[in-house]
Specification:
It contains three helices and five strands; from the N terminus they run H-E-E-E-H-H-E-E. With 112 residues, the protein is an alpha+beta fold. It has one domain: HIT-like (HIT family, subunit A, 2-Layer Sandwich). The chain is globular. The termini are far apart. Bound molecules: guanosine-5'-monophosphate and zinc ion.
């Protein structure tokens, strides 16, 4: 996907603050952090969202979770909130699957 922002970041064509890279997954800092740790975990392969990824490759989804845990282990004591937005009405602004790893500060409940 030549015109996909996260495909291009994963390929190194657009600079980012990388924190972890594996064969299939990259993790880099969100450009507008909302927590002391705010890292995006992204598959190198293009999938539109986490539901599409789960259908296409559960193994790759599990690898993304493993990378998220490793980021949290090194940055915020292993505890973190993991958010996948699916669809623009849920706040997804980049149509390439990504997990937000949020940590480093106490977090309240999202739902009442
Ligand atoms: P979404 O809103 O799709 O769930 O999350 C997309 C995230 O990507 C946002 O939190 C936004 O700050 C981040 N973002 C957008 N453009 C860039 C960029 O060019 N570089 C980085 N590192 N993060 C970005
Ligand atoms: Zn992409």
């Amino acid at each position: 996907m030549d015109d996909c922002l996260f495909c291009r970041i994963a390929a190194g064509e657009i600079p980012s603050a990388m924190v972890l890279q594996t064969e299939n997954v990259v993790a880099f800092r969100d450009i507008a952090p909302e927590a002391p740790t705010h890292v995006l975990v992204v598959s190198r392969a293009h999938h539109v969202d986490v539901s599409a990824l789960a259908a296409a490759s559960p193994t790759l989804l599990a690898e993304m979770i493993d990378v998220a845990q490793r980021v949290a282990d090194s940055e915020c004591g292993g505890q973190f909130r993991l958010i996948f937005n699916v669809g623009p009405k849920a706040g997804q602004s980049v149509p390439h699957v990504h997990a937000h790893v949020l940590g480093g500060a106490p977090m309240g409940r999202v739902l009442p």
